[in-house]
Amino acid sequence: MEFLFNRSEQGGKDVRIVDSSLATIAIAKGNPSKKIIFFAIGFETTTPHTAFLAKRIKEEGIRNLLILSNHVISTEILDFLLTNGLKVDGIVAPGHVSAIIGAKPWEEVSLKHQTPMVIAGFEPFDILLALDHLVDLIKEKKAKVMIQYKRVVKPEGNVSAQRLMDEVFEVRGAFPWRGFGYVPKSAYKFKEDFSFLDAEAIFPCQYEEKAPKGCLCGMILQGKAKPWECKLFGRTCTPRTLVGPCMVSNEGACLAYFRYRLASR
Predict the structure, then answer these.
(1) Does the structure show a pLDDT above 50 at 2?
(2) Fold of 74-147
(3) Element housing 160 (H / E)
(4) How far is CA 135 from its chain centroid?
(5) 120 SS3 class
(6) Which of 13, 69, 91, 102, CA to CA, is 20 to 30 A from 119?
(7) Domain extents for the chain?
(8) Within a 10 A sphere around the Cβ of 101, how many other Cβ atoms?
């Protein structure tokens, strides 16, 4: 799912969920007097979709459809974490991201930090087989990248998608991440030819993170703390009484730990 925002005449917000980035074109054409902002999120998995949308906007001369790019770079954030103290024996790399970027970007991170990696799929058998390969690499002390998800991931990745991304986007100098602060070269911004649809340039905003008092979500996201080490976890912060973002999100570490803790009782 992707999100789309536009202001209503009453000064509030009209927020809609679209199942395709291209669905925003029909909304923009149906509301020619309004500025429509498409909130584009995700790693390299979804970046090509937004790049394709940007090209369509330019080709069709649509002037009221803007894009807020929150596309981030998976290898850069992993490199940032490993450089700043994250200690792991091995890494299971995401198959959907790797279907786009291939294995080479992971190989650079693996060699730099001497950390073995296996690119895995998402079925239970994929995960188990990837872990089996990863244990072998760790035992053999081989800092290399293996592709378990061969039915989807090619070593070179999706070259057409990469070309599309390169045509529309360039790497930012830095980008703010929740719990991490600004991380160098970890996200994409529009190239000059597509700056006319960059919502961030037209409606500039300042990033300011306000973590709830006592919440360790930032440390948990960095792998430097476990959810149960937070004094709020399971007490004032539960799925019914949300405090921090790690409990709010369905993919949040605190929510996952809370659910499994209850299930084990």
Answers:
(1) no
(2) Rossmann fold (3.40.50)
(3) helix 159-168
(4) 27
(5) strand
(6) 69
(7) 2-72+162-202, 74-147, 217-263
(8) 25
Q: Which residue type occupies 150?
A: K
Is-contact 76 134, C-beta < 8 A? Answer: no
- Spatial separation of the C-alpha atoms in residues 115 and 137, rounded to whole Å: 9
Q: Which of 20-24, 93-97, 259-263 has the lowest mean pLDDT?
A: 259-263
Return the number of other C-beta atoms located less than 10 Å from residue 162's C-beta: 17
Q: What is the pLDDT of residues 220-256, one digit of tens each?
A: 988 889 999 999 999 999 999 999 889 988 888 999 9
Q: Give backbone dihedrals phi and psi of 145, rounded to 5 degrees, phi first.
A: -115, 125
Could you tell me the pTM of the whole model? 0.86
Distance in angstroms (rounded) separating the CA atoms of residues 7 and 60: 23
Six token digits for residue 122: 């998402």
SS3 letters for 56-124? Answer: HHHHHCCCCEEEEEEEECHHHHHHHHHHCCCCCCCEEEEHHHHHHHCCHHHHHHHHHHCCCEEEECCCH
- Any residues with CB less than 8 A from the CB of 251 and at least 6 apart, and which? none
Distance CA 154, CA 63 (A): 38
Q: What is the CATH number of domain 2-72+162-202?
A: 3.40.50.11740
9 in Cβ contact with 34 (< 8 Å): no
